[in-house]
Automatic annotation (TrEMBL):
This is Octicosapeptide/Phox/Bem1p family protein. It comes from Striga asiatica. It holds the Pfam family PB1. Residues 121-145 have a biased composition (Low complexity). The lineage of its organism: Eukaryota, Viridiplantae, Streptophyta, Embryophyta, Tracheophyta. Residues 121-168 are annotated as: Disordered. Residues 30-118 form the PB1 domain.
């Protein structure tokens, strides 16, 4: 005697369906506190019953536009007990659970799936250091103003020319100010001007 296919509603179903939600959050519902999925998108994905986890992951990634982790709700559990699907064995056990629940309900059931972005284990690239940026800057051409200011900072100090009284006493007067400027034309050497504290420059 041949058994009726009506006793096994999944006997002629070569495919299984996942109701996939992603981009939202699982939050308690007001006022009873029952967990519900809020926001995001929900789509239906139909795959072959013999699909492997790697093949399923590719299809889920194409649907979401990015790699995702798969967590599913068992037929008799709430959203606080989602099961992570990380291997082909996990996927086979999940399908078996839904097959038993569908047989008891005499109707095919869709697997409730929730997709989450994987946690990144890599570190963000560090910004370029000031040393590297300064070394890069040293190879770039500099403006005349910048080159002139550097010359002012690094120019050698001019020789001191003390007055006759200072030379006689062996002491150098302290009220000397030094200034230099470049003469006209390329390659001109700096001209040093010495202020001896009086109202004129030497």
């Amino acid at each position: 005697m041949v058994e009726s296919n009506s006793q096994n509603p999944l006997a002629l179903k070569p495919t299984i369906k996942f109701v996939c939600s992603y981009g939202g959050r699982i939050l308690p519902r007001y006022p009873d506190g029952k967990l519900r999925y809020h926001g995001g998108e929900t789509r239906l994905l139909s795959v072959d019953r013999s699909v492997s986890l790697s093949e399923l992951a590719v299809k889920l990634g194409e649907m979401c536009g990015t790699a995702v982790n798969l967590r599913c709700q068992l037929p008799t559990e709430d959203l606080d007990a989602l099961v992570s699907i990380t291997s082909d064995e996990d996927l086979a056990n999940l399908i078996e659970e839904y097959d038993r629940a569908a047989a008891a309900a005499a109707a095919p059931l869709k697997i409730r799936a929730f997709l989450f972005a994987p946690k990144s284990s890599g570190k963000l690239p560090s910004p370029p250091s000031s040393a590297s940026s300064s070394s890069n800057g040293s190879t770039s051409p500099k403006s005349p103003a910048l080159a002139s200011s550097r010359c002012l900072r690094h120019a050698p100090r001019p020789p001191v020319h003390p007055n006759a009284a200072g030379r006689a006493s062996g002491k150098v007067p302290v009220k000397y100010a030094y200034h230099f400027q470049y003469g006209g034309g390329n390659g001109s050497r700096p001209v040093y001007v010495i202020h001896n504290g009086s109202s004129h420059w030497q």
